[in-house]
Amino acid sequence: MFNIENNGSLGKLAILTIMSGGEDEIALKRQGEKFGYRLYKGKVGSMDSAKIFAAVETAAKKEGLIDQRYREEHALYHSVFEAYSGMCRGQIGLGTVLRSAGLLFCIVRGTKLPGNDADGEWIAVALYGNMGAPIKGYEHEVLGLGINPI
């Protein structure tokens, strides 16, 4: 079992949370919260990248992971952008090239390493799911991660 205290980080927690489910996901969230991390996991599907960005931003605001200050919104935007870029393998865009995505997303806010607040707070966004032609069976798995300081 993963132990965040011994080998954890903000990004690793985001990736492991998005890849887990059931009891494993609950255990990861509990471990993260024990060290002051705030997490949210959701899902979004679209052929429009703007809808993916909006879903993550809306969830982050609704769950209190960011507030209305520019620097917090900006850090989240760049984290989503980095995760999205990785997921799209640098080819940004969905609908304009007839691709769709069904994704899980995980937002984690906290220090880079458990209990080490010397660098302040950071925000990580992980995206995981399927992307491909908007025809069932023509998709493949994708994964992206973005991390930025708040």
UniProtKB/TrEMBL annotation:
The record's Pfam families line, in alphabetical order, gives: HutP
Q: Which SUPFAM superfamilies match?
A: Hut operon positive regulatory protein HutP
For this protein, the record's InterPro entries field holds: Regulatory_HutP, Regulatory_HutP_sf
GO molecular function list: RNA binding
Alphabetical keyword list: Activator, RNA-binding, Transcription, Transcription regulation
The reply to whether Phosphoprotein figures as a keyword in the UniProt entry is no
Keyword Transcription listed? The answer is yes
Q: Which family does it belong to?
A: Belongs to the HutP family.
Function, as annotated, reads:
Antiterminator that binds to cis-acting regulatory sequences on the mRNA in the presence of histidine, thereby suppressing transcription termination and activating the hut operon for histidine utilization.
Oligomeric form and interacting partners: Homohexamer.
Its recorded name reads Hut operon positive regulatory protein
Q: Which organism is it from?
A: Sporomusa termitida
Q: Which gene encodes it?
A: hutP_2
